[in-house]
Design a protein that fits this description.
By secondary structure, this protein is mainly alpha-helical. The protein contains six helices and three strands. A three-stranded parallel β-sheet has the order 1-2-3, with helices on both faces. The longest helix has 19 residues, at about 90-110. It is globular.
Length: about 130
């Protein structure tokens, strides 16, 4: 996969960031530690399927096989399997993109306070 993967790193310029998202087919976040990273909101808003680790707040908002494919931190073989799965199953990519756009629109339409409240309710499983 080396010829198909680009490790972008930090991108500070908004136009370069938009271009990077637009050229991408899948967003991968192999973090060991996170809260809930803003890049996941950004990738959802840009209609990208997500492969990530299930650390921090990530699994409290993203659901495995619904709007993301999640792996344990450090499980490289899992990441490779999940990437190949997305490449091989266009129907899964479309489903994840649809679910992510819906989730992003739901979150983005709320005030920041409501967004935090939603995240906290999901983390602590409060209805």
């Amino acid at each position: 996969l080396q010829d198909k993967i680009e490790m972008a790193g930090y991108i500070g310029d908004i136009n370069e960031l938009k271009s990077c998202y637009q050229k991408s087919d899948i967003f991968v976040l192999p973090s060991y530690i996170e809260g809930f990273p803003r890049v996941l909101y950004e990738s959802m808003s840009q209609c990208l399927p997500i492969v990530s680790t299930d650390v921090g707040g990530i699994p409290h908002l993203l659901v495995n096989n619904e709007n993301a494919l999640l792996c344990k931190a450090g499980d490289i073989e899992c990441m490779v399997r999940k990437l190949l799965k997305l490449i091989e199953l266009p129907s899964l990519r479309k489903k994840m993109i649809k679910n992510n756009v819906k989730l992003f629109e739901e979150i983005a339409s709320d005030s920041p306070g409501k967004q935090h409240s939603l995240a906290i309710r999901r983390i602590f499983h409060v209805k």
